[in-house]
Structure formats: structure tokens, C-alpha cells
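Predict the 3D structure for this chain.
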Amino acid sequence: MIELVTLGMLIQGKMSGYDIKKVTEQTIGIFYKMSYGSLYPALKRLVDEAYVTEEETNDSKNKKLYAVTEKGQRHFITWLREPLKSNKREYMVKIFFYDYLDEETRQRNLSDYQRSIELQIKQMNAVQAIVSKELEQLENKDQYYYRVSTVHYGLQFFQMENEWLKQIMNKKEF
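Done. Predicted structure below.
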């Protein structure tokens, strides 16, 4: 998956590894996490497969810039055209079996997770506010429709999940 996400980011233009990670965090970071430890080996694989080119900058930082090739773009678009699949959510499997846990551990884990969801909601609201301001200045907003729609989905999803967690923490009937 990291290779495909990286290709998608590079379609926007040349970037360093640092830039790829930063843009990923600022855009789909709520849905997808990437570490430098996984990014740089992925970039090497992409270069080896000729999906990406690597350019030395020879500046004081000796950073490398990466660009997607036509072959890489075709590979990415082929993947993008595949039917959508839902992700596996391990935490849902765990919660399914929470009847086997003691109440204290169950409540602590649910509460901790619920607080992390509230933090993600705050982050999504901040991202949505920034994106809305930036969109006001663009002429062709339709070019960003699906990117913006994923931010909106993320916010709605986390709000729904937050409410569900509150319900199950209080053992409310459905």
C-alpha cells in the first residue's frame, strides 16, 4: 500500500521523502500512517521497478527528489481503477470479544480509544477549515472534489464512531 500512496503523492509533482511524508500526514494522515522507516525502502523499490526516478539535489542537505514515471503513473491508475474494498479494522474484532474482558480494562481501553477519536475529530475540523479557505481561492474547485469529500467522510465517520463508543461505554441498548 505504501508504494501506491507514494505514487499518488508523486503524481502531484517532484518531492523529497520528507515532503511525501508531510503531505501524506496533512492529507490522508487520518486514514493512513506512514513512517520514514517504511517510506525510504518503498521509494527504493519504486526506483528499482522504474515507477519512480530519483534525482540528487547536491545541496547542503544532499536530499533526493523523486518523480513518478509514466510506468509508475500507469501502475497507480491501474490500481485506482480496481473495485473498492473495505479495510479490516482490528479494533472492531477486539471489541466484539470484549464480553470476555473485565469491566475495568474494557472501560479503560474504550475510554482511551474514544479520547483518541475525539482528538482525530479536532484534527479533521482543523484540516477542513484550512481546506475550505484554500478552496475559496481556487478557480476550478471540481478538480479537488474527491479529495475534499474524503476529508468530509473522515469527519462524519469519526463523529459517528465517537457516538457509538459513548453508547457502548454506557451499555445503552440499540
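The longest helix spans residues 103-136.
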